[in-house]
Amino acid sequence: xxxxxxxxxxxxxxxxxxxxxxxxxxxxxxxxxxxxxxxxxxxxxxxxxxxxxxxxxxxxxxxxxxxxxxxxxxxxxxxxxxxxxxxxxxxxxxxxxxxxxxxxxxxxxxxxxxxxxxxxxxxxxxxxxxxxxxxxxxxxxxxxxxxxxxxxxxxxxxxxxxxxxxxxxxxxxxxxxxxxxxxxxxxxxxxxxxxxxxxxxxxxxxxxxxxxxxxxxxxxxxxxxxxxxxxxxxxxxxxxxxxxxxxxxxxxxxxxxxxxxxxxxxxxxxxxxxxxxxxxxxxxxxxxxxxxxxxxxxxxxxxxxxxxxxxxxxxxxxxxxxxxxxxxxxxxxxxxxxxxxxxxxxxxxxxxxxxxxxxxxxxxxxxxxxxxxxxxxxxxxxxxxxxxxxxxxxxxxxxxxxxxxxxxxxxxxxxxxxxxxxxxxxxxxxxxxxxxxxxxxxxxxxxxxxxxxxxxxxxxxxxxxxxxxxxxxxxxxxxxxxxxxxxxxxxxxxxxxxxxxxxxxxxxxxxxxxxxxxxxxxxxxxxxxxxxxxxxxxxxxxxxxxxxxxxxxxxxxxxxxxxxxxxxxxxxxxxxxxxxxxxxxxxxxxxxxxx
Length: 595
Known about the structure:
Helix content: 25-40%
Radius of gyration: 30 Å
Oligomer: single chain
Largest sheet: 8 strands, mixed
Structural class: alpha+beta
């Protein structure tokens, strides 16, 4: 018999009754029933109930074991009596009668329990992450993550992609966040950067002729934590393809994502390929977000024409000054009590808006604080624009275009939540396409790239040289699921002359472009294929499948919100002699004055 185990703690069944077995694992629970002591023994695979009689010479040893001590037990597998069968456990029809027990490791008193899903402060959970990972829900999340990655690899290989690894120590790149820098000991005063993404390398692989690349790629960004983004590092399914259009990229990745969500999504419905395509402009108009949650059936319309020159002077004057009026159409809520509308109005004030105006259509009349300012023709036009009728209501947001879209999108979500309209049993995918190539930065008063600087502008060089940059669209796209952006991607700019011009518009000189992207730019001068790709986030995919709003629940060893690893105590100070080796002198901020 094996020294540690003949079976795992999730393996024994009724068919094993009468035989002997040896199990090793952690003491999950103990229950003293007087003459009998029950020990639930747990390992990675499951849990088995073990029992020992008080008359046994090793009873005292068993009774002395604290929770989470690691033990090995051996004995006879016996059938449980009908009234003691546990149908919730795969091993629930049997138990192990302990004849031998060896202690492999004693556990000290626990700082947090493992055998319960009770909520504990995140800082405590991260400090003792090795214990937290023993809890069933978080343990299963990490197992799910492993299975998802294995399935992704299989599906990508079946699609004809090859997996390659790209460098971790590289040069800085303008991906939109701060780099993590690594000082060079042998090149004083110079630094490597950890890659924000393998962007340039995967494009170089296309130039090298590999045609279809993928990688479960680690990415590093020195940015603030969010519920759906880990600080420090994250992983993505990075892929790139040669000789493809935007539609070819979509056709390659859609079956992979659809298959993953069908395989691991339980009984939830998954959008079948091809996923809906929504332009960036339409997304902001109809959903108030470039990350629309299509489980929410409510739609937004532009209705400024209804208020232009109307008796509602607040909106009419704003429209004359360039404001838009966004209407959130909500069918079937006319019968809601006044408190429903007042609650939404209070919510809007909490968001910094003056309120959330509304009109209710009921019994052939229009009611609400705005209705009296609109004559019958305007009300009919409002119904036509929103598709509403008797029994329905419409809520309004009036502001400049960007803030109006943001508040209308938030109101759309809030109203749907209040009414329970968001489908909880579905994964709804869509592509957001036709992103603007550039945007105007109000702080710097300059034109910046709005998305990926390496994207191909629609219209190519002619568009860059003849059109207002702020009107140029790019072959850029995001994939969104249930309101979560999984990925950004693009058809790349593989033509040097187009790249020079694109960066020139964003304020980069030719010399700067060559200095910062010389490797890729030089490669393009020796024949680059048209290529494109994307990079869905692994962490976010697993977060959706695990049905958790916090990405740290699906990462084995995440940092906290302050980008600290509480388990390994990173970041940490280093000895002065090490800094001297690296040619670094610290200039720390002054401590705030006391008193």
